[in-house]
Amino acid sequence: MKRSVIQLGNNTSVVSLPFSWIKKYGVKKGDEVDIEEAGDSLMIRINAVPVAEKVEVDMTGFDEKALFHGMIGLHRYGYDELKIQYKPETLRMIQSAVNNKMLGFAMVDQTSKQCTLRSLSNEIPGEFDGALRRAFLVTLSLGTASMEMIREQNFEALPDLINLEETNNQLTNFCLRILTKKSKEKESFLKYVVVWNLEKVADEYKYLCQELARSAEEIDPKLIETFEEVNELVKSFYGLFYKFDNTVFNETCNKKKLLENKLKDVKTRNMGEFTLINHSLGLVQRAGDFATSLYALFHNRSNP
Fold first, then answer.
1. Do 197 and 108 share a structural domain?
2. CA dihedral of residues 52, 303, 86, 296 (deg, nearest 10)
């Protein structure tokens, strides 16, 4: 919407506020508002308690992997309360997501078929810079610590560093949540994440082509069939972007998990086969990164 600027005196310009916004938040004559400059934009805030965004979703058709990605997607979308219907065997995954990914959230209500997750903190946009810096420092610490253990041949201690990666996940998800909540167009922000990830998928194909061209070694036909499965997985996520469906989403997330495990168990005979499997695994993991943003984008339009 457009508003005309009214000049009052030499140093004061006035713009009217939308009546629907004033009515929604109960702004009255004499109330104070906070105005924050953001480049060519101005952000106006009132002191009233923000309206909590809530959503209720049926995830009883989801297995663990799909449910996990769906929950993180709703968290990043900016909801303050999630009411989830689930099947009992996925409760462990719900608790894991809350504890390891959803910073500031807690399970406040639970039955055998439904639970309520709620944000216990009020995210302030100004917290973004601090959280992002901590995420960088945690990642640098992970790199330094792993290097020291590898240098000392202390390989059995490497799994102890996983908690640093989990801290990174909490902080980066928190940053993405703040960015989404601040965004005027949540869908545009989430689509940006999808596009960014799509570029990384293409990079993985590029590296595969470059390295296979250099090695030029014979590859077992069975491994080529496995690579075809990888391509089909990428196509499945493409299909979800243009026609989202809960059942297909669940099947695709499970397919990603099974294919990832299959690739990790493959034995290779030469550098060419190793290259194909290594980048196939990278493609599967990159493709899997679409899941969270896709569910966040389309959860309101998915089938029951």
1. no
2. -50
